[in-house]
Design a protein that fits this description.
Strand order of the largest sheet: 1-2
Structural class: mainly alpha
Order of helices and strands: HHHEEHHHHHHH
Radius of gyration: 19 Å
Number of strands: 2
Number of helices: 10
């Protein structure tokens, strides 16, 4: 058993999260590097599968890990301001807010064009993939039992990735894959589930409606509408992120 994961004191989940977080932040697990498998973590740290899964959920919510079904979990670039030994802050530093807004500007340029190309190059298969990803997010966003933030983040990313893939341009798809799910603009407070549940539900419903507008335009083959819907969605995301991160309501 790894000595960095104690059996007593803090919970085993917290200890495993801290251990893996340090390895990612310190660069021992570089961005894109595959984490040990669930079986390996169970054997190496003497913990249960439940502990490992809870730890991965926490790391996904922190934007440190991306899990691909059937492929495993991979390290992401640590969020700005997260140093070795630090836990995830409950408020986003102003510098991180600025960087997130810059990232959304970049995404507007990339994803608006991806949406337009997805509509222009629409096929039955790509339309089905975009529609399926849109519905997967909407169903979880509107479920009676609230989805975990990390799950919604993953489904949100999956929708945006489906549009990029439908564009038929591998460089646009690669641009999103490099960013990973951490590109989704969620304040740390929301990822830590410290926000009001009703507010989170409303936000998810609005995002689902915006996704639906993008998907409908792509399926209809309307490039101008698809680009406009994606641009509007991302600009709205920037506004919501700024309001939720700073507590300041914008016009």
């Amino acid at each position: 058993m790894d000595p960095t994961v104690p059996r007593t004191g803090i919970s085993r989940t917290e200890a495993l999260v801290d251990h893996l977080r340090r390895r990612i932040v310190n660069g021992e697990l570089a961005p894109g590097h595959k984490l040990p498998s669930e079986n390996q973590l169970v054997a190496e740290h003497g913990v249960s599968r439940t502990v490992v899964r809870e730890a991965m959920t926490r790391l996904q919510a922190e934007g440190l890990v991306h899990t691909r079904r059937g492929s495993g979990s991979f390290a992401l670039t640590p969020p700005s301001g997260l140093g070795a030994g630090m836990s995830v802050p409950h408020e986003v530093p102003a510098s991180s807010v600025t960087e997130r807004l810059d990232l959304i500007d970049y995404r507007v340029a990339i994803e608006s064009e991806a949406a337009a190309l997805a509509a222009t190059r629409r096929s039955d298969a790509s339309a089905d993939a975009v529609t399926r990803a849109e519905r997967d997010f909407a169903e979880r966003a509107r479920a009676e039992i609230p989805a975990q933030p990390a799950e919604l983040l993953g489904l949100d990313f999956a929708f945006h990735r489906s549009v990029a893939e439908a564009s038929g341009n591998p460089l646009l798809l690669e641009a999103l894959d490099v960013l990973g799910p951490a590109m989704i603009a969620m304040p740390r407070a929301r990822l830590d589930q410290s926000g009001e549940e009703a507010d989170a539900d409303r936000r998810s419903a609005v995002v689902a409606a915006e996704h639906a507008a993008v998907a409908a335009a792509v399926v209809a083959g309307d490039a101008l509408a698809a680009a406009a819907a994606m641009r509007s969605h991302l600009r709205n995301s920037a506004r919501r992120f700024l309001e939720e991160s700073t507590g300041r309501v914008t016009g």
